Amino acid sequence: MADLLLPNLLTGNCSDRVCVRVSRFWNFYDTNNETKLLHADMVLIDEEGNSIHAQVYPPADELFKNRVKEDGVYTFSYFRVRASNIYYKPVENDQMLVFTK
């Protein structure tokens, strides 16, 4: 299975692979409880410079926090492609990824 470029992803559950660089990685906590992680966020960039916002929700964030680092290049699969968040959009893309495994 070949890696897809980010613009070629289709909305829905996806078992395709993408090879991307993690440009940014940060955690987003509940504003009322700074110890409660709501999700981890990433900006991903493919080999042609296309970017997409990605989120990882607990408990899946445990798989990412010690393995994924900013500026690292990774091949990801098993994610869902959905419409980007209308309130927070760190990159110009109408889609975003949500990791499921």
List the helices and strands and how they pair.
Layout: E1 3-4, E2 12-14, E3 17-30, E4 33-45, E5 51-56, H1 61-65, E6 73-76, E7 79-83, E8 95-99
Domain Replication protein A 70 kDa DNA-binding subunit B/D first OB fold: 17-100
Organism: Panicum virgatum
InterPro entries: NA-bd_OB-fold, RFA1B/D_OB_1st
Mean pLDDT: 93
Instruction: Assign an overall shape.
Output: globular
Proportion of helical residues: under 10%
The share of residues in extended strands comes to over 45%
The total of helices stands at 1
**Major beta-sheet overview:** 8 strands, mixed
What CATH architecture would you give?
Answer: Beta Barrel
Straight-line distance between termini? 18 Å
CATH superfamily: Nucleic acid-binding proteins
CATH topology, what is it called?
OB fold (Dihydrolipoamide Acetyltransferase, E2P)
Number of domains: 1
CATH level 1 class label:
Mainly Beta
One letter per element, helices H and strands E, the order comes to EEEEEHEEE
Domain Replication protein A 70 kDa DNA-binding subunit B/D first OB fold: 17-100
Pfam families: DUF223 (PF02721)
Protein name: Replication protein A 70 kDa DNA-binding subunit B/D first OB fold domain-containing protein
Organism: Panicum virgatum
